[in-house]
């Protein structure tokens, strides 16, 4: 029985456009001009009698039908690539790139890397601590670990919740001794607050504890969680942190929680390209991340 297949060269061009996110990037990958890729897209749509791409600004985007089709054929292309590698005709890409929020990467993922390496001996693991978001659909990273208030509706991606940690203020014992009023909520906005790249996290926490208006927040901005935690340990002010990042310092008494609260503003999520969600290596990484987050003490 013969298979009903679309022309394979236009199909490959469409898959590259969907994966890279643009005609120009797909053309560079395929070593052809962008006009050739555009022609292939037109040919494929005419053959299938379905609109797969549409204009958006100065570029294009996949239609809902195009997104579903791209997800299906991407798995097929992945299988073809893997089958080719299995023949020994081409070396497999050993690199596994994990992008992660800096604080979580340094404090939780990096100490557990030997466990992951033992499970993935045939892969070269790259852990990239960053606040930037990778383009997973373009292959910029294989796995992303980040904090989100809600999951994107992008059907090209798959995501699952790792943990929803409690967020709370932290200070050094010395700071608490110098400013005992820090234990009162009303005093917080008059104290030296430590921010990451903006004041938004403090604003959200304050509103979650006690909805209402408050004065414009001041204090130094230190760009990432690692620096705010370190500044708090040095007695420079009050930082916001969470169970996953400072549980050891709290247990050791190096940091204290001046105000009791039970606020959960966001969750840590793991994301990858939907077509690779069940790849054996991705599954191993997901299970490894769940083990790490399960081991983090999280107060009720």
Automatic annotation (TrEMBL):
InterPro entries registered for this protein in UniProt: LysR-type_TF_proteobact-type, LysR_HTH_N, LysR_subst-bd, WH-like_DNA-bd_sf, WH_DNA-bd_sf
Q: Which SUPFAM superfamilies match?
A: Periplasmic binding protein-like II, Winged helix' DNA-binding domain
- What Pfam families does the entry give? HTH_1, LysR_substrate
Sorted alphabetically, which PROSITE patterns does this protein's record hold? HTH_LYSR (PS50931)
Every HTH lysR-type domain range: 11-63
Q: Name one GO molecular function term.
A: DNA-binding transcription factor activity
Alphabetical keyword list: DNA-binding, Transcription, Transcription regulation
Per the record, the GO terms for biological process are: DNA-templated transcription
Q: Does the keyword Plastid apply?
A: no
Q: Which family does it belong to?
A: Belongs to the LysR transcriptional regulatory family.
According to its UniProt entry, what is the function of this protein? NodD regulates the expression of the nodABCFE genes which encode other nodulation proteins. NodD is also a negative regulator of its own expression. Binds flavonoids as inducers.
- This one is known as DNA-binding transcriptional LysR family regulator
Organism name: Rhodopseudomonas rhenobacensis
Q: What is the lineage of its organism?
A: Bacteria, Pseudomonadati, Pseudomonadota, Alphaproteobacteria, Hyphomicrobiales
């Amino acid at each position: 029985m013969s298979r009903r297949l679309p022309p394979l060269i236009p199909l490959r061009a469409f898959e590259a456009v969907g994966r890279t996110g643009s005609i120009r990037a797909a053309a560079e990958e395929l070593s052809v001009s962008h006009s050739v890729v555009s022609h292939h897209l037109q040919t494929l749509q005419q053959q299938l009698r379905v609109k797969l791409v549409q204009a958006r600004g100065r570029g294009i985007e996949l239609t809902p039908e195009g997104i579903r089709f791209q997800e299906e054929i991407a798995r097929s292309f992945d299988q073809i690539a893997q089958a080719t590698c299995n023949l020994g005709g081409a070396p497999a890409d050993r690199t596994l790139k994990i992008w992660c929020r800096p604080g979580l990467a340094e404090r939780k993922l990096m100490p557990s890397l030997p466990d992951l390496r033992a499970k993935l001996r045939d892969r070269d693991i790259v852990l990239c601590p960053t606040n930037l978001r990778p383009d997973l659909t373009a292959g910029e990273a294989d796995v992303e670990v980040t904090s989100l208030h809600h999951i994107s509706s992008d059907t090209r991606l798959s995501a699952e919740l790792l943990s929803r940690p409690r967020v709370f203020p932290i200070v050094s014992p010395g700071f608490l001794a110098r400013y005992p009023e820090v234990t009162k909520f009303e005093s917080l906005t008059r104290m030296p607050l430590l921010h990451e790249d903006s004041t938004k996290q403090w604003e959200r926490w304050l509103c979650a504890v006690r909805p209402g208006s408050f004065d414009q927040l001041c204090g130094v901005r230190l760009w990432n969680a690692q620096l705010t935690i370190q500044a708090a340990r040095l007695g420079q002010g009050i930082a916001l942190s969470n169970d996953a990042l400072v549980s050891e310092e709290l247990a050791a008494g190096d940091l204290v929680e001046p105000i009791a609260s039970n606020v959960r503003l966001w969750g840590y999520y793991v994301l990858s390209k939907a077509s690779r969600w069940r790849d054996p290596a991705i599954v191993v990484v997901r299970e490894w991340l769940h083990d790490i987050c399960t081991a983090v003490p999280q107060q009720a």
